[in-house]
Write a structure and sequence with these properties.
Blueprint: H1 5-21, H2 26-33, H3 37-49, E1 53-55, E2 61-63, H4 65-88, H5 93-106, H6 109-122
Antiparallel strand pairs: 1-2
Helix pairs in contact: 1-2, 1-3, 1-4, 2-3, 4-5
């Protein structure tokens, strides 16, 4: 499935807020990402068309099974990259966060898997 960086960011945020708060509303996403509620609603409509979320107007945003899996994959990439940058390469935490957010969208699954295996093989704790 082809997704834009923005769509991945929205999906990752829905997953994050689901874990944090249990219930996710448009207002929560807008506040976290700094976007307007109409922008969030438009993005959610696109994610709904891709069968990644369910959202009734003025209701909660719920990840589908497919959306939950993809959100976890994106979040996992982000976390590993951030930890690698900060803990292995010594990048400052703020820069590591920003760079990981950019890298998670362009890094292929093959490269990510190789990085994860490399870190496991070398015993690097991240």
């Amino acid at each position: 499935m082809i997704m834009t960086q923005s769509q991945e960011d929205y999906l990752e945020m829905v997953g994050f807020l689901s874990e944090k708060n249990g219930e996710v509303r448009v207002t929560d996403i807008a506040a976290e990402l700094g976007f307007s509620k109409p922008s969030v609603s438009a993005a959610l409509k696109t994610l709904e068309e891709k069968d990644l979320v369910r959202h009734e107007r003025y209701g909660s945003v719920i990840l589908t099974e497919k959306g939950r899996a993809l959100s976890a994959e994106i979040s996992g990439k982000h976390g590993l990259l951030k930890d690698f940058l900060a803990n292995v390469l010594g990048v400052s935490p703020g820069i590591a966060e920003k760079d990981a957010c950019k890298m998670e969208h362009i890094l292929s699954s093959e490269t990510f898997d190789k990085l994860r295996k490399f870190l496991k093989k070398t015993g690097k704790k991240i």
